[in-house]
Amino acid sequence: MMVALSRRVGRPAVTALLLAAVVFLVGPIVLTVVASFARSWTGVLPSGFVTLQNWREVLGLAETFGAQRSMGWDPLVTLPVAGGTTLMVPSELAFSVGLALGGVLINLVVGVPIAYAVSRYDFRGKEWVNALSILPLVPGVILGVAFLRAYPELSGTSVGLIVGYSLLKAPFMVMAVQSEFESMPLRRLEESARSLGASWPRTFLTVIVPNASSGIISGAIICWALAAAEFNFSYIVWAKGTQPLAVFLQRHISNSSFTKAAAAVSMFFCIIAVVTLLLQQLGRRGFDTRGH
Predict the structure, then answer these.
(1) Pair 118, 179: CB distance under 8 Å
(2) What is the pTM of this model?
(3) Which of 5, 85, 175, 241 is 20 to 30 A from 137, comparing alpha carbons?
């Protein structure tokens, strides 16, 4: 009887709790997107639907006033899209997205081998390597100040931002890939491939890495999203010129009405969604080792 009562009450209770959690987490995002199409928000809910003025000002398609700086459209950058089509995007937006992607590229080149070595081999100092690779060494604000003093030639440059992003987000790549490697029979896979005549580099690149594709893609997406939203380091190191996305958002949030700030945040949500889908598609194609 207790089992039947538990099934009858427990399952609906868990479902209700899950729905409440989803609404609690997703609700503010939905409300922010809705507010980006409103003219004002002075009461309980936004009002004056539907207007695209907030988006136009944020994207630099309309005149703006105040200290904030909108995303410029001059010049435009042409990006290839699936199916042979092209997409025209503002150069500032492409540059800002590219900064975070540059950090992800460094994380892939450095983080994947580190995760593999820690998961596959036993060596002296392994515990220290594992601890240093999965623990964030310093917060963004401290790393930014250190960059200003230690690498003044990199301060205010795109290279400095890319290197900083990679250092700050490397632990997330290592943790995501390491957990994937630890769930795989690495020794057996290597021995099977080597017995068939594959060299070690070929074994690693065509057998080991593709089998860890889900962890690598997840790590890349997490690192990119966190790097794009990294404000403390970006604010300290960035000097002038093209704004990183985090600084762009901060200026619109602090110097604009809520509806315009909502448009800036909603634009960032859209960028996150698009880049996430692109990374997933590129990851699946890149790890497909079958012949065509």
Answers:
(1) no
(2) 0.77
(3) 241
